[in-house]
Amino acid sequence: MHAYRTHNCGALRKSDVGGDVRLSGWVHRKRDHGGLLFVDLRDHYGLTQLVVEPEATFFAAVEHVRQESVIRVSGEVVARDEDVINPNLPTGEVEIRIEEFEVLSEADELPLPVFGEPDYPEDIRMTHRYLDLRRETLHKNIMLRAGVTKAIRDGMEAKGFTDFQTPILTASSPEGARDFLVPSRLHPGKFYALPQAPQVFKQLIMVSGFDRYYQIAPCFRDEDARADRSAGEFYQLDLEMSFVERQDVFDAVGPVTHDVFKKFAGDRPVTRYPFPLIPYDEAMLKYATDKPDLRCPIEMHIVSDHFRGSGFKVFASILDADPRHEIRAIPAPGGGSRAFCDRMNNWAQKEGLPGMGYMIFADGEAKGPLAKNIGAERSEAVRQQLGLKAGDAAFFLAGLEKDFAAVAAKARVLIGEEMGLTDKDRFEFCWIVDFPLYEWDEERKKVEFGHNPFSMPQGGLEALENAKTDEDYLAIKAFQYDIVCNGYELGSGAIRNHRPDIMYKAFEIAGYGKEVVEDQFGGMLNAFKYGAPPHGGCALGLERIAMLLTDQENIREVTMFPMNQQAEDLLLGAPAEAGSEQLKEVHIRVTPPIVEKKD
Predict the structure, then answer these.
(1) In the chain, % of residues over pLDDT 70
(2) 45 with 13: CB under 8 angstroms?
(3) Cβ distance 422 to 295 under 8 Å?
(4) Strands 446-449 and 438-441, how do they pair?
(5) Residues 6 or more apart whose Cβ sits within 8 Å of residue 131
(6) Which of 282, 354, 387, 535 is the most buried (most CB within 10 A)?
(7) For residue 526, what is the enclosing H or E element?
(8) Residues 6 or more apart whose Cβ sits within 8 Å of residue 481
(9) Computed over its alpha carbons, how large is the radius of gyration of the chain?
(10) CA distance from start to end of the chain
(11) 165-212 pLDDT, tens digit each
């Protein structure tokens, strides 16, 4: 017989009754039933119930062994009585009558329980992550993530992509976040950077003549943690393709994404491929965000004309003050009660807005201060534009889109949930396309890159050269796109700008001279000068995919060893001070931060 196990703890079935077996695992829980002692033994594969009779010589030893101790048992497989079969357990028809018992590793008193999975403070969970990972839910989450990774690899290989690894020690990246710097021992005063993404390298792979690259890539960014973003590091499906247009990228990654979600979504519907394409401007109009949750059917409308020159002076004066100002309406089917409208208005005030105006539509008339001030005819025009009926309501926001968009986007989702309009038990995908290449930097009063400066502008060099004013520049779109699911950006990508002449012009418009481009991006720029294929790709966050599929609200619940909110590894104590010899080797002297004195 094997030294530790003939079967794992999830393997035994009724067909094994009468056999002699050996199992090893962790003591999950114990129960004393009228003298008989029952133990649930757990390993990676499942649970098996053990039974110890009072006359057993090791009864006292089993009785006193702590939960989470590692034990080895041998015994006979017996069938459970019909009335104690556990249909929720694969091994629920059998149990093992223990004949031999040994403690392989005694557990101390636990700092957090494994059985039952009660909520526990984050610092305790992170410090003892190895115990946290024994919990059933977290264990399943991690295994699902591993399954997602394998399914992605299988899908990408089937699409003709090849897995290439890119460097971890590299130069600072133009991705936009803070780099993690690594001092060089051999080159005093110089530093490597951990890659924020393999962006430059994957484009150089295309220039090198390899056609379809992918990688489950580690990425490092010195950013603050939040629920849907890890502190410090994360993994992404990274891919790039040569001689492609936008649709080719969609047709490569879209079906793989669909199939992965379909495989792990259970009975929950997944948007059929091809996913809908929504232009950025349309997304901002209808949903006030570039990552809309399409499970909510509510779409916003611009209703400025109904308030322009009206009796509602607040909105009329806002429209007169600036041609960029608008009045945005959020329909609320079924929301036609004063209590609900007042609650939403109070919510908007807590979100930092003065409030949200509203109209309530009853039989034949609109109610509320807005309706009273603009009159019945204009109110009816609003109702018809929004497609509302008696018992519905509408909420209104005024001013610059950028000033109210974040609240409007939240309000739309909140209304959908409150009114029962959102089917949360599904996965709704879309591509957001046609992002602006540039945006207005209000602080510096200049045009700046909107998202990725290396995206190909739609219209190429001609579009850049024909633009003469800031308004012209802001109207230029890029071949850039995001893939969105249930209100989360799963990934982004672009058809790349592979021509040096277009790159120089694009950066010139954003205020960067030729020498700056050559200094900061010379490696890739020089490569493009020796024949670069048209290419494009994208990257999808692995943790966010797993987070959605496991119905978790925090990305740490699908990460094996995450950092806490303060970017600390409480398990191993990172970051930590370096010893004087280590610092000397890499030519670094640590100086304490300067604390400004208060008057």
Answers:
(1) 99
(2) no
(3) yes
(4) antiparallel
(5) 68, 110, 111, 112, 114
(6) 535
(7) helix 514-528
(8) 246, 249, 250, 431, 432, 433, 435, 492, 493, 494, 538
(9) 30
(10) 78
(11) 999 999 986 656 789 999 999 999 999 999 999 999 999 999 999 999
Q: Provide the edge-to-edge strand list for the sheet that holds 393-399.
A: 301-302, 326-332, 393-399, 357-362, 365-367
Q: Which CA distances in Å does 250 have to 162, 289, 421, 495?
A: 18, 21, 30, 11
Contact partners, residue 439, CB within 8 Å, separation at least 6: 447, 448, 449, 450, 474
Pull the structure tokens for residue 554.
Answer: 């925090």
Residue 16 is given by DSSP the state G
Residue 251 confidence (pLDDT) above 60: yes
CA-to-CA separations, 492 to 253, 430, 455, in angstroms, rounded: 11, 12, 11
**CA–CA separation, 51 vs 35, rounded Å?**
11
Q: 156-183: b or e for each residue (b if 16 or more CB lie within 10 Å)?
A: beebebeebebeeebeebeeeeebbeeb
Asked if 27 and 45 touch (Cβ cutoff 8 Å), the reply is no
pTM for the model: 0.93
Half-sphere exposure of 425 (CA within 13 A, CB side): 4
DSSP string, 309-366: TSS-HHHHHHHHH-TT-EEEEEEETT---HHHHHHHHHHHHHTTSS--EEEEEETTEE
